[in-house]
Amino acid sequence: MTLEVAEHLEPQSAETFVKSLTGAADLILFGAAYPHQGGPKHVNEKPHTYWAGLFAQHEYRPFDILRPTFWGDDTIPFWYRQNTFLYARQGSSAYDNLVSQSLQPMQNVWFMDCVHPQLYLCKIADIAGLKESS
Questions:
Q1: Which of 5, 7, 92, 98 would you call most buried, defined as having the most Cβ atoms within 10 angstroms of its Cβ?
Q2: Average pLDDT over every residue of 8-20
Q3: In Å, how far are 5, 14, 18, 42, 118 from 9, measured between CA atoms?
Q4: In what order do the strands lie in the sheet with 84-89?
């Protein structure tokens, strides 16, 4: 499990980081900051599809089972609600177990890149503030 860590690693470390995760487990809970999300010491904010591509190189597929559950839960910071995916190695017992429970990997991985309304509204407020100050 690694949540909100990858954006703090230098971009050239991304592939090595994913390789180390995929070498450790067949099931990985992963989340990383989205571009322009902002945060202290974020040096590698990437779209979720970027990370999905790195995981795919190791035969891992994303399951979007947490976002639908927690998307509207204001007790959880929006970045966890927006950025958290479960990756499973195709052909593993973990993958087969998810599928046997009627869970499917994402068919349209581009949907991973949708942003949470709170992030959108924060950025709109930032833009409005810039316009007012100029």
A1: 7
A2: 96
A3: 7, 7, 11, 8, 25
A4: 2-3, 27-31, 84-89, 60-63
Domain range for residue 99? 2-133
Q: Choose the weakest-confidence range: 18-22, 92-96, 97-101, 119-123.
A: 119-123
d(CA 41, CA 81): 21
What gap in Å lies between CA 71 and CA 66, rounded to an integer?
Answer: 8
Look up the pTM and report it: 0.91
- The pair of structure tokens assigned to 49 is 């599809």
How many separate domains does the chain show? Answer: 1
Residue 60, beta-bridge partner list: 89
The model's pLDDT over 22-72, given as tens digits with 9 standing for 90+, comes to: 999 999 999 999 998 888 999 999 999 999 999 999 999 999 999 999 999
Name the maximum alpha-carbon separation found in the chain: 57
One-letter amino acid of 39: G
Nearest to 84 by CA among 52, 120, 58: 52
